Amino acid sequence: MAEPTPRTLTHQDLARRVGVSVTTIKSYRRKFPEFFQPPTLTKPLRFVPDTEKLCRTIFDLFQEGLSIKQARRELAKVFPIVADIDSLPITHDSTQGSAESTGDFERLFHVLGQMSKGMGAMATAQAKFGLEAAKDKDRIDTLFAQQNALVAHLNEISANLNKALAGLAQQAGKSPAAAPRRVINVRGEQGAVHAYEFTDRPPESGTAGPEPRKPGEEPARSRAEEPTGSFQTPGPESGPTPSSQSGPTPGPTPGPPVGPKPGPRDVVGRPDFLDLPAVMHSARGEYLGLTGPSGRPFSLGELEAYLGQRPDLKPLDEAWQGADEEWTLTLQSPHSTRGRHAFSFRKTQTPKGNHVALLRQLSIDGTTVTEGFLQAFFRQIRESLLH
């Protein structure tokens, strides 16, 4: 026998008839309030008997997998909308509904709090970025100011350099003429005269004059008085210069070239110290060396190659003669039967312990040149290697 339909139904009655829980019936009412209309606002709430059909239809629609929006569309086709959604007293239906609404609000407040914290952190980051941007702007302004000051300073330096260059150019226009050149004649044993042309170096400013010398003592040659420049070996037509013809002293009949005669221990070969630096003594007894184009010391072997490449000298077939630590390199002028140059070297050790090849003398056709001439010749080689 079917259960008689009462005049009104509570939430519990609807749940028992549909076969769901009371909470499910209340959730139907919260989701679709426009289709529920309680006759009174007394508690517990009571609904008309047609509400049972409404709840069964909602249950079936959810079983079919419809969403709330789709279910509402289907319910509107069958059931009338009995009340405005905003006017329904949903929050007064039960204590359970109020608790659920309170939980929703708590979650909402939690989300809003998190959003507020995020916005606060964003505002802090923006403030820090603004401070850093202001600091960067100050740094850039400082750099621009320093750059402008540097440009002004460079312009001032450039102007001063231009003035200095203009003054140097003006002084160069008023500078005296070049120093005169002079010729030194060297007479060999057979009467042949070799002329060497040099440019006098002007004395340095502030250099003290020559010291007094005793009677009969030869004047000392200062560094400023030493000849510099390139020497020229005379050709076949060269003869005695007027300065050498001071008296009627006729020279002997020309004979074969005169050079250093090998001693009893001298042999023909090559010294074993060609790789040592080539040096000579200065006027003060110091060791003066040569520097090659690569910046390292110029060895004796390199000096031999340099002398052999000169247009006024060429090495002989047996250029080296000597023994042990004493060797002589002989070169001949290609333009004359005279002009035989003999360079004497000695393997020695400096006070600092360095092994070197010392150029101790130069003989031209058997005549040994002076120390000043030898130093000027050595200095000319050193200057030519720098250019």
Brief summary of the model shown:
By secondary structure, the protein is of the alpha+beta class. It contains 7 helices and 11 strands.
Structural class: alpha+beta
Helix share, percent: 25-40%
Percent range for β-strand residues: 15-25%
Mean pLDDT equals: 76
Low-confidence segments: 87-99, 202-215, 217-259
Tally the beta strands: 11
Distance between the termini: 134 Å
Order of helix and strand elements from N to C terminus: HHHHHEEEEEEHEEEEEH
Q: How many separate helices?
A: 7
Largest sheet: 8 strands, mixed
Task: Please compute the radius of gyration using only Cα atoms.
Answer: 60 Å
Shape, per Cα inertia axes: rod-shaped
Description:
With 387 residues, this protein is α+β, with helices and mostly antiparallel strands. 38% of the residues lie in helices and 17% in strands. The protein has helices at 11-18, 22-31, 50-63, 68-78, 95-173, 300-308, 371-385, and strands spanning 181-187, 193-200, 227-228, 267-268, 278-281, 287-289, 314-323, 326-332, 341-349, 355-364, 367-368. Strands 4, 5, 6, 7, 8, 9, 10 and 11 form an eight-stranded mixed β-sheet that branches.
